[in-house]
Amino acid sequence: MARSLRERLAQRRAEQSGPVATEELTDEQIEAGEVPEEELPGDWYVVHTYSGYENKVRQNLEHRVDTMDMTDLIFEVVVPTQEEVEIKSGQRHSVQRKVFPGYVLVRMYMSDESWSVVRNTPGVTGFVGTTARPSPLDQSEVDAILKGMHAEAPKVTVTLALDDTVRIIDGPFSDFRGTVDDIDHERGKVKVLVSFFGRETPVTLDFLQVEREA
């Protein structure tokens, strides 16, 4: 952007209530979520995109805002994501999962000009709304979405299903094989029925301690 969000916000506040020192607010504070969303300029709108084009739309729109000098009307473009940890073959893989596939959030002042810039961005199919003029999101909805993007602990997912045959690869039962009897995604645990001396015994293990048999 030609000017930082801090500078644009300071100018907006100055227009509404007199001079405001830019030192009051830093870009780091904004990125860290220390500034209440309701104090930031503009409203949040939902834009529909072609499936799989969310990040490309964000890049295209940010470029158009710069080149078309729209930084005073369009402030932020967000593809809502959440970090997940996938367990595959006993290995952790961090991935960013799109919370709302096919949708992008845009914080902006709505006008005919800003509407046109967003609507005509490659990959955009339109604003979400039932009226001729799009309606902004409620602040409570915005807060919930943005809070979900910054969850302290990423969700752990595993490519296991009930009745899968797995091999235990860590711990005192290493190299034993068993059948998945229960999966606890919240705790990252899996219960495996392991055969001991002709009897099936349930063993609770961490996702990292098992791998699915091919």
Q: What share of residues are in beta strands? A: 25-35%
Structural class: alpha+beta
User: Spans of 5+ residues with little confidence (pLDDT < 50)?
Assistant: 1-6, 16-25
Q: Order of strands side by side in the largest beta sheet?
A: 11-10-9-8-12
Please give the radius of gyration in angstroms. 24 Å
The count of strands amounts to 12
The level of helicity is: 10-25%
Q: Per the principal axes of the C-alpha atoms, what is the gross shape?
A: elongated
User: Which whole number gives the mean pLDDT?
Assistant: 79
Reported for the largest beta sheet, the result is:
5 strands, antiparallel
Enumerate how many helices there are, as a single number: 5
How far apart the termini lie comes to: 50 Å
Order of helices and strands: HHEHEEEEHEHEEEEEE
